[in-house]
Fold:
Amino acid sequence: MFAHDFLEEAAQNNALLQIHPHTKLFLGLGTIFLVLFAPHFLIPFIASLVLSITIVFIAKINLKFYLSLLSIPLGFATLSVLVVILLSKGQEPIWSWQVLSWLPLSISQESLNRGLLIFFRIMGGMSALFFISLTTPMTDLFGVMKQLKVPDLFIDLSMIIYRFIFIFIKKAHDIYLAQQMRMGYSKPKEAVKSYSMLFGSIFITSWDAGEQFINAMECRCYNGKYPKNVSYNPVEWRSLTPVILFLISIIISSMLASGYQG
Amino acid sequence: MEMKPLIQLSNLSYAYPYAPPAIQNINQTINAGEKIAIVGSNGAGKSTLLLTLNGMLRPVDGRITFQGKPVLYDKKSLRTLRQKVGFVFQDPDVQIIAPTVWQDVAFGPVNLDYPEEKIKEVVQEALHKVGLEGFERRPPYHLSGGEKKRVAIAGVLAMDPDVLILDEPTSMLDPAGSEDIMDLLDELNQHGKTIIISTHDVELAYPWADRVILMENGRITASGTPEKAFSDRELVKRARLKTPILLELCQELAARGIKNGGKLPTTVLDIIRIIENEHHGNIRLFENGYGSIHVADVDLLSGKKAVAFMNDMRCDTVGVMGSRAKICSRQWGITPDISYAVIDKCILQAMNGKTCAIFTSKGMVSRVIERVNEFNAINNRSIPVQEISVQTPDDQ
Structure:
């Protein structure tokens, strides 16, 4: 299917789908929050490791798919952390090199620590974010939004957008294939032309779909309301307990680490 | 069946802007409980006609009355009309508007301001009727074509309409999926819904419909029983359709002097009957014994019992009728041989000495027995038909 490399598709098929979204959001958001305040790089490192293991082995997300996802922040994090390590100044440089008169590069114990901390904070935060997006599909999040009293207009619009994203991507995919079959993107000039045609027809399709959408809603007695499903399986202690233990252990180790440093 | 006019169309015309009239001068009465197929080529005006029935299009000329009252086009009357006349679009992707199955089916009831408990109840019931329980939280892009169609039908059923209009219900489905949908429509019709479909598939419309309306260039050219509507070859050709194969076969047999006994065939069973009449007796393989039909209510059975029974009776053919029975048979690991037009096909098998088991749900059991007995009486046969008794010895 066209949607096979979507995060949403993975989320719809993950093994933790039946767990109450509150539990999963609590774990994900809690980890992001705590990782930002962790004083030592080992804490976000371990948090990231635990979440990755959960994603791959408990939620049964394909390892290759997950690694390819992780590689996106990995490149970004490595670059920025290199800058931090090389440019920030410390007391005892381990290694230094005057590249140009105005550009001294040096690595010190402090800059190394700071760099690692930032690096693992990014990775910890990202794996928590991936945990949420790989285990909690959008369709569950709409219900959570409703419970959090997000304005109906916003939720309704996001639900309509969600519904149409898949229709349009499928349409775009079909047109793209049809163009390729007729040598659409063979030359740079041709590619520009093909892209403009692709976007043109997507625009017309969406216009059309909008009209049909209104018709379909009229046909079904639309009166300004959009149903929202807020019933989930109950929150289970079986899943909530390890989440709480995990978060508490991050807090305790953070406190210990900052006490040790201070 | 009691004929109670439900929808009356008189002198109806509609034209899209800057175009010649899409339908003109339509006069037709649709009775409660009918199964109607509107058959015509592409652009004959089928969809336009259907869209006028629930007020989506306002005719430029003519009158529509629903349940004796003229259709009004203010917002409130339209809502009432659309609740009573449910419309299922050709493309389910157009109709399914919510991100999950449950939300989509609940769309109508929520907008009709049903209380929360009632919404849950009607959605549950609608999903049950179309055989999609357990699909509540699935997103629509995850479903197959047939499942999407079922969601679309459930969304309309949840509003409890009197009339169900389906525009080309099978055009996007594979043959098995089409048969399932047609069986579902039969079941809904049994439960009292008036059903109107449009199609250009004559083979589909011919055995299914009570009444066929032929359309050509925005006009109705014939309306009547399927046999009658399709018998005028010239008319069928002009409408850019073709004669259903069974009818053609019958016409060719008649041209060779084989009489049809006054009734044109709508099923293979009818054709076999015509040939047997000509043959003056039964046609069946010599080694085949006498066939029989056994009917079972799936709610009174368990999977183990059903399988044990099938083995005991050495059933040759298994027919499964209705969505409830289809769900059960899937759970029990029984693969049906017949899942559409089950009764007629089982009679056909029994005539050739096969033993058939029909699994169906409550209420349909007596209908099967009635239908087989009726066939026996008319054709002077004695195909034994009985309900599978529930109290088997291994009952715990």
In short: Chain B touches chain A through 37 residues (CB under 8 Å).
